[in-house]
């Protein structure tokens, strides 16, 4: 069956069958590091190295990431069963900072089911949720867990980081390696709070 004859709900249902939990995703990344490999179609040396770096980043956030009490209360009060379906790749720097924090938020409330799929293995899904025409990850799709209706989306970056990138591009035309380093420093300094604030807004 061709993609154009499938509805978004069909594509989402198919992707959910291929999805994994955050714990399974972490196990996958650890295994890829051991095998000197990466997710996705491009197995270049650079992306393999990014996967290794991102495993270390995620390990740090898994240990140190916290949900501020006021935001925790807001997440705890959410009473609708939803699925946070996240499209990602192990080599993505933004994903390494964001995905462990999504997990911290999802753990606060049993109504939130956090699932992950790999972008290059779920092209039909990715094509439904492009950012400015590009396949940017991570992309979180919030679904009603019973109907798979799309309720909202988040990503590929928290709002503050998105605005930083936009302003830099407008001034300099392109994203430089120096700016990427600045962005990593911002993630470290922010400690995931901007991500959680955006997720709370997502829940309404």
TrEMBL record:
InterPro entries: Thioredoxin-like_sf. This is Thioredoxin family protein. It comes from Winogradskyella litoriviva. The lineage of its organism: Bacteria, Pseudomonadati, Bacteroidota, Flavobacteriia, Flavobacteriales.
């Amino acid at each position: 069956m061709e993609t154009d004859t499938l509805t978004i709900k069909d594509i989402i249902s198919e992707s959910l069958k291929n999805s994994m939990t955050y714990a399974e995703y972490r196990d996958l990344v650890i295994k890829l590091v051991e095998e000197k490999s990466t997710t996705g179609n491009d197995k270049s040396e650079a992306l393999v190295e990014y996967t290794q770096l991102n495993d270390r980043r995620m390990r740090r956030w898994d240990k140190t990431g916290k949900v501020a009490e006021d935001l925790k209360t807001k997440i705890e009060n959410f009473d609708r069963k939803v699925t946070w379906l996240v499209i990602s790749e192990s080599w993505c720097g933004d994903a390494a900072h964001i995905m462990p924090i999504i997990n911290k938020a999802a753990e606060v409330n049993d109504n939130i089911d956090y699932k992950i799929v790999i972008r290059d293995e779920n092209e039909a899904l990715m094509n439904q949720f492009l950012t400015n025409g590009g396949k940017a990850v991570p992309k979180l799709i919030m679904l009603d867990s019973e109907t798979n209706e799309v309720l909202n989306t988040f990503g590929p970056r928290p709002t503050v980081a998105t605005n930083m990138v936009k302003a830099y591009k407008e001034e300099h035309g392109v994203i430089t390696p120096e700016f990427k380093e600045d962005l990593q420093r911002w993630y470290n300094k922010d400690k995931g709070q901007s991500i959680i604030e955006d997720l709370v807004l997502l829940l309404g």
